[in-house]
Each structure stands twice: as C-alpha cells, then as structure tokens.
Amino acid sequence: MTRLVDVPAQFDDRSFDQFAGAFSHALADGGRLLFDAHAAEWASPYGLVGLLAAGQAARAAGADAPLLTVPTTPDVLSYWVRAGFFSAAKDLFEIHGRVPRGKPAADSDVLLPVTAVRAAEDVHEVVGHIQQRATAILSSELGIDPKATMGFAMALSESCQNIVEHAGTGGWVAVQAYNWRRKLARRVVVIAVADAGVGFRHSLEPTQAKRFGERWGDAAALEAALIQGVSRFRDPGRGQGLAGIRRYLARWEGKVAIRSGTARIAIVPRWDDDVPLKDGLPSFPGSQVLLIIPEQASGGGPSKQ
Amino acid sequence: MIPHIMVQAVLQQSVSGLYTDLVTRPTGRAVRENIERELPPGTIAVMDFTGVGCLDYSCADEIVAKLVRDKVKVLLLRGLTDSHRDAIEPVLAGAGLAVLCERADGVLEGLGATGPAPALLDELIQRRLAARHPGGSIRFTAA
C-alpha cells in the first residue's frame, strides 16, 4: 500500500515539522511512500535537502524506491532543476512528472546547487566552488567584507563535515542567496545541509548520555554539541567546528538552527523571533542544519562577538 | 638548521586532488603526518602558509594545534592571512596553546593563548634566532 506524504506548498524550515510529521506517520505505517510535491509553490534550500534526506530514509527503510510527484507550476519546477534537486533526487526517488532538462544556471542566485557530501573530497569540491561563486554576492549584495568570504567557506566546510564525521551516511548541501521579504526585507545567503544518518543523540550517546542522566535526549544532545561544543571524540581538539560557525554568525548577525530527531536548537539573532530550543517535534532521521547570513545594515560593520 | 615547512607544497603531496584549501580532518591529518616525518621532536620550526586558500577550524586543530601540543617546541607561522588567523587563534586559545606569528613587517607576535607566548619569544632570543629591536619589537633573525 502506498502512503502519501504531502510536501508543503511553502517548504522551508518553518513548515519542515509539518512535513516531518507526515513523513514519520507514513513511514511507521509501512508500505511505499509517495512524496507529493505537485502543489509546491516555493521551496528553500533547507526544504530541498530535507526532502532528499526523507527520500534517503524511505529508501533505507523499504525495498521499493519512494515515489515523487514533481511540482506542476513551471516556474517552481524550473527552480528545482536550477537548484540541482533532480540531479540528486533521481538516485533516490521514482520520479513522476516531466522534469525539464537543464543544469544549475551559473548566473543565478544558486551559489551552490544541491551537492552530495559523502567524503572529505566532496567538502574540498564544495569549498572550492563556493569561493568562486560567493565572493561577489557576499561583498556587493550583502555588504560583507570580501575578506570574510573565507569565513563563509570555513562555516560551510564545518557544516558539511558534520555529515562526513558523524552521520554514518551521505547527505546534501545547498547554498542560495535570495530576498527574504517575510522576515527582513533584506537579502540573505542560506546554507542548508541535511542527512538521514544517525543524528546528534546517537552520535554523542556513548560519551555524553551518562553526564546528562534522565535529561538525555535529542534536545540535550543538540545543546551539548552547539552550546557546550562537545564531540563524540575524546580528542581534546574536537568540537571546534560548530563553535567556529557560531563565532562567524555572531560576527555577521547570522542564524544557525539544527534539527535532529525530535528537537531543534537555534542561536537566534535580534532580527528573528525563533525559539532557542524546541523538543517533542515529529521525529525525523539524521541532522538538518540551517545557516542564514543577512545583508548587513548600511554603515554597519561586523557585530562584536 | 631550522626546518621551513611550505604548507601548500605539503598539501599537494598529501592529497590526490589539486587543492589549495586546507579543509577537513582527514586532509589535516594527512598534512600533519607528512610534516611530522621530517621533524625531530622538540624542534623549532617555521611553517609558511603562503598560497593556502581556506583554512578551516578542523585543519587548524589537526595541523597547528597538534604539532604544538605533541611535536614542536616553538612553531613560527608566516604567510598568514586574516582568515587563517581567525581559524588558528581560537583553536589554540581554547587548548591553552600558542605559536609565534611573523607579521608582514617582520615583527613577531604571539597567536593563541596569551600565557605561553612570552616564553616562546624568549626561547628564540636565547637561541639567537630572534632579536629585540629598538622600540621593543622582536624580529626573527634566522633566514
């Protein structure tokens, strides 16, 4: 029996919990999953890589490849193609609907199309690519010091390495610039990274569960990783990556949010009204990371850390 | 003879792709292991980052912090960009470690934890590898 998972019309980090709820119910029911994106009107990079992670998890759970109906609106479909979604999706889903041929456009706001991350070599490719594409947009459109482009590449590298080092499976990353009318009326650059791997709780459990006792769970694991900088490795130099991401985002008034399992943690800048920690969310495998760097207010330099 | 390590060249020898960025733990580990082969323990070494693009925190820890912690007595870095410093400084400071950094004008300064840096400068002066100049600045004298 086929189980339906609706892809939200506006598919981003805000609607992701709705998607995760539908996904976890459908997965628990068993049978083949059908991801229905025909009514999709817009998807953020977070939505796109999250959908791939769901496909990865569905594929791992069942014998048949999950089904995916493509968006019917030509503009939306065209964007998903330019964002590189279907290049990754064809290996995970049985795709229903006509997908136009095309490659991610070099002149678009897609700074990095959806890109698979499985090993260190992939991170090298991602970092090399982003430096070519991002410098102009970060400095001319977001008002970020050109020298800070390298910090952006560092944050991207560390985000991707969470997959390589901790997920136990592959994942995807995408980077895009767009006008964020809803929140800021400013340009933003968004980095989205997702996998359907073991997640933070499982990764940290052997070294951290005892310390947290009854509090141990997805929320505690995220808190340990992002706020306390702990790592599953006993090597004293570990845990630098997320701390470095936090420093970079604090400097540019950016936001980081990480969802794993049933919890989501965020470092919330002044311009956002997100909550710092949510627990008891619909379960979703692996980890999903969102970094947002906003256009700098005119005349403003970096924030003090 | 003080070992001079050209990090970009070691990177090219250590990984199969033609990368200029020092990113990821495995890359950092490969580069450090290549460097360690040529370094006797407790040595003073110069590490030149000229030509290195992005340096992430993982590589900063895997290469610089681990060499300082486990292998070298004094590590002098040159050819650093601001972003290289941004990666190295917190990694060293968090571990209570420090290196010396040669600025573009030749002046040496500590990078990382503030505590150990004066002793590193004194070590170079005692070994006549650095000299104090009028005004108090200290410069490396060994080529």
Give a concise summary.
By secondary structure, chain A is of the alpha/beta class.
What is the beta-strand fraction of chain A? 15-25%
Overall morphology of chain B: globular
Q: Whole-number radius of gyration of chain A?
A: 18 Å
How many structurally independent domains of chain A? Answer: 2
The chain-level structural class of chain B is alpha/beta
- Distance between the first and last residues' Cα of chain A: 53 Å
Task: Tell me the greatest interface.
Answer: A-B, 26 and 30 residues
Q: Total number of β-strand segments of chain A?
A: 13
What general form of chain A does the structure show? globular
Name given to the CATH architecture of the largest domain in chain A: 2-Layer Sandwich
| Domain tally of chain B | 1
The portion of residues assigned to helices of chain B is 40-55%
Largest pleated sheet of chain A: 7 strands, antiparallel
Counting copies of identical and different chains, the oligomeric state is heterodimer
Strand content range of chain B: 15-25%
Classification by helices and strands of chain A: alpha/beta
**CATH topology description of the largest domain in chain A:** Heat Shock Protein 90
Low-confidence stretches of chain A: none
Q: What's the overall average pLDDT of chain B, rounded?
A: 92
Radius of gyration of chain B: 14 Å
